[in-house]
Amino acid sequence: MQSSKVPAQREQEELLVEWANPENVAPFGALLTAGEDGTPFGDVDAKLEISGGVPRFYIMTLFSRPLRVSHITRHMCVTQCLASMEGKEWIIVLAPPADTPDPGRMRALRFSGAQALCMSVGTWHAGPLTLQPSCNFINLELSDTNIVDHDTVQLGKTYELAF
């Protein structure tokens, strides 16, 4: 599959959009793909941290918007799992867990509609972003994640950039 580049706010900067694979997802969590029913739990499965509250498994509808990232968020109490429900491709911008997101380590990853992402606790993320007019996504987090566990950095204010 071919990678593409998305221009950044400043012309000299670009954030390469790469197809997700186990190696480039590893710093941020786990890439989940289909396996045969009955396969024992192993390295290709999501390692969930959802013991800090009531798990919330829900479907969210996202609408297309410009592929511009101006802020990035993390959750320190929970893993978060995302997947397109309709076999549609999607993009997410990720940075490894750290006190502050490192723009030099941010990656834009493109997922096929047959892949899911389980983000490690503390992984910085912007998205998911749909490439379609709209897309339904499965989201697994805690019931209060977006209320009590939502740390956001405005990239323009902090780093004077947007991707």
Question: Could you explain how this protein is built, in words?
Answer:
With 163 residues, the chain is mainly beta. The protein is built from 3 helices and 12 strands; from the N terminus they run ββαβββββββββαβα. The strands form 3 sheets. The chain has a 5-stranded mixed sheet, with no helix packed on it.
According to CATH, the homologous superfamily is Ureidoglycolate hydrolase
Tell me, briefly, the overall form. Answer: globular
Strand order of the largest sheet: 1-2-8-7-10
User: Total domains, how many?
Assistant: 1
Indicate the low-confidence ranges by residue numbers. 6-12
The portion of residues assigned to helices is: under 10%
- CATH 2nd-level architecture: Sandwich
What is the SS-derived class?
mainly beta
**Total strand segments:** 12
Radius of gyration: 15 Å
Major sheet summary line: 5 strands, mixed
N- to C-terminal separation? 22 Å
What is the strand content?
over 45%
CATH class: Mainly Beta
Could you give the topology of this structure?
Blueprint: E1 4-7, E2 14-19, H1 22-25, E3 29-33, E4 55-63, E5 71-74, E6 80-84, E7 87-95, E8 107-113, E9 115-119, E10 124-130, E11 134-142, H2 145-148, E12 151-154, H3 155-159
Parallel strand pairs: 2-8
Antiparallel strand pairs: 1-2, 3-9, 4-11, 5-12, 6-9, 6-11, 7-8, 7-10
